[in-house]
Amino acid sequence: MLVDTHTHLQWPSFSSDRAEVIERARMRDVKAIVNVGYDLAACRQAIEIAKQHEGVFAAVGIHPHNANSFTESTARTLGDLAREGKVVAIGEIGLDFYRNLSSRDRQMKAFERQLALAEDLSLSVVVHQRDAEQETLKILRGFSGKKVLIHCWSGSLDMALQYVQLGYTISLAGPVTFPSARRLREVAKAIPAGSLVLETDCPWLAPQSHRGQRNEPAFLVSIADAVAELKGVDTQTIADITTENAKRFFSI
Fold first, then answer.
1. Domain CATH number, residue 84
2. Looking at residue 146, what is its pLDDT?
3. In degrees, to the nearest 5, what angle opens at C-alpha 154 toward C-alphas 149 and 159?
């Protein structure tokens, strides 16, 4: 069994064949999927999709790209959505200083407010971080919860190890399969398997064996194969460990 810890099945590219995509994942032994929101509409869609499909769960949150529109009313609505059945986390939330589609100040305020919401509801958090390593770490150090997942890791080994020391979880996605991703592959080798989970981040970042295609949860097997090879173990071992990590993290 595998768990895809980060998908966006509400994205328009899945509108015509979502059920078939989920069934293909099941056929490849991807038996649990966490579908992640990024604005209020996407959060509502994530919940509806989770309700419609066995083994699909939802996370609700406002992505840093959308932080300029985050208000206290948004936080209240998120709180209501987070109490819905099959919601297992607040996310994806965080900081993105690479694209800066929202102001840095608004990103940080939205991040802190959503962490507070997760604390209030005792929910795990799924964090997006890009070009904001130190700022993200500083804010997370003020978060009392320990269930923090840094999704689609692309940073340094040193920073990954700092997160591991805090008890956080690191998620690896399709780029770990890219031959050119030497730094990321070194991270995959070095991080203890007990701190790892796997994701597709579909429809983006298809693994090397499916480059140029729409990514989907069934392709998670290729990511598990790559991580297993890097760690010198068989794929079943990585599947077992990362599945137990994901089930524990999301309480599923």
1. 3.20.20.140
2. 80
3. 70
DSSP string, 228-249: HHHHTS-HHHHHHHHHHHHHHH
Rounded distance between C-alpha atoms, residue 140 and residue 158, angstroms = 17
Sequence-separated (6 or more) residues with CB below 8 Å from residue 9: 18, 21, 22, 33, 35, 46, 49, 56, 202, 217
Of 53, 42, 124, the residue nearest 77 (C-alpha): 42
pLDDT tens figures, 95-116: 999 999 999 999 999 999 999 9
Q: Which helix (H) or strand (E) holds 38?
A: none
Asked if 10 and 46 touch (Cβ cutoff 8 Å), the reply is yes
Question: pTM value?
Answer: 0.98
Residue 95's H or E segment, with its range, is strand 87-96
Full residue range of the structural domain in which residue 34 is found: 2-250
8 A C-beta contact, residue 130 and residue 99: yes
The answer for 29, left when phi > 0, alpha when psi is -120 to 50, beta otherwise, is left
The domain tally of the chain equals 1
Burial 32-47 (b: 16+ CB within 10 A, else e): bbbbbbbbbebbbbbb
Place of tokens 């978060």: 143
pLDDT digits (tens, 9 = 90+) for 159-178: 999 999 999 999 999 999 99
